[in-house]
Amino acid sequence: MKDNIAIPILKQRFSGTSKDLITGWSAASQRPEVASLYVHIPFCFHKCHYCDFYSIVDRQDRQEAFVTRMIAELRAQSKATGHPSLQTIFIGGGTPTLLAPGLLKELTAAIKTEFDLNPSTEWTIESNPETLTDEICEVLADSGINRISMGAQTFNTTHLKALERHHDPESVERSIRRAKAAGFERLSLDLIYAIPGQTIDEWADDLSRAFALPIDHLSAYALTYEPNTAMTARLQKGEFDAAPDELEVEMYNHTLDQIRAHGLKRYEVSNHAKPGSECRHNLAYWQGKNWLAVGPSAAGHLDGIRWKNTPRLEEYLNTSDNGFAPICEHETPDRRRMLMDWMMMGIRVSTGLSQTKLFTDADQLGKQVNIAQAMNMCKNQGWARLNNDHWSLTDSGYHFADRVARELIGALIED
Description:
It is built from 15 helices and 18 strands.
């Protein structure tokens, strides 16, 4: 289960802003549409020990300046890309619902002004249980946001403490039902399993409590030990042992049994939804579509051009190139890297990889034979299957999703 992917590093360190990248893409004679937007709000009231996303403890003294700066970036990117019609928006963090209600209203109003939205636009915001107040729910509903993703992680107080999460488990139910009463039909819950010391019975209880709530989407992630996090430092010091692989597999299999029993389907390794309730924004990532991104540390993609905003709030606030933000790295279009990205992400999704595209693109790189051998090896191992021109993971293959991706990527780079 814990089999990390190793891929060539093609990112280029960069000192500048996203202006030339985005405006250069916009000047192209033929360009596909931009249909998604990611907005990163870095504020949190506490830094969880397992989290490697860019976030800072909120003192509420920089929120107003931050929202003003973010609106400038929204305007710059929207203008440069022709004020695109958005199909998905995702406001993540951090904890976006920590923004003061008035500032959250100002930010969402700017998004609606700068971009073309329609009734079918999926608009998600992340929230923690303690921050989803009646007032915030009203602001979200009035703004047009129609999907809430809540980080519960676990209902067990001992394991919440291990993760350094600071919310009352009972507040999860209160907040979900508050959102439901405010008119939100699309509600997602995040859970984490394989927490140190967690038993299969405790994980089963977490799932049972989650499915007792009116949710249509569940993200269930195995705890991963990311570099430079407090959780990883504690593991390396021997303060606790990671969950055994066998237990992690048992927990994953139990998750599958429960999601199926409650009418959900797995559509990605860690994501499950009722039919029609899949997160379309995340699917845009996994399918390699285009998206804009604003806020410190936010990463965007336009036809193989990738960039990441600098993950430092002060630099973000104090640096502006006609609204465009400072970036710390970028990637220019590269056929091999783009195929690697598509394979690595696409194999995780239930629809899988088109064999026609896979072999055509690999043949252009002189690697079709290598790719065919890699896929057949994964098939022989029982990890992947071919159905109607699409390679997808088997149930057992989902335990080896990273290994399958690594085999495919290795086939592209080997001589």
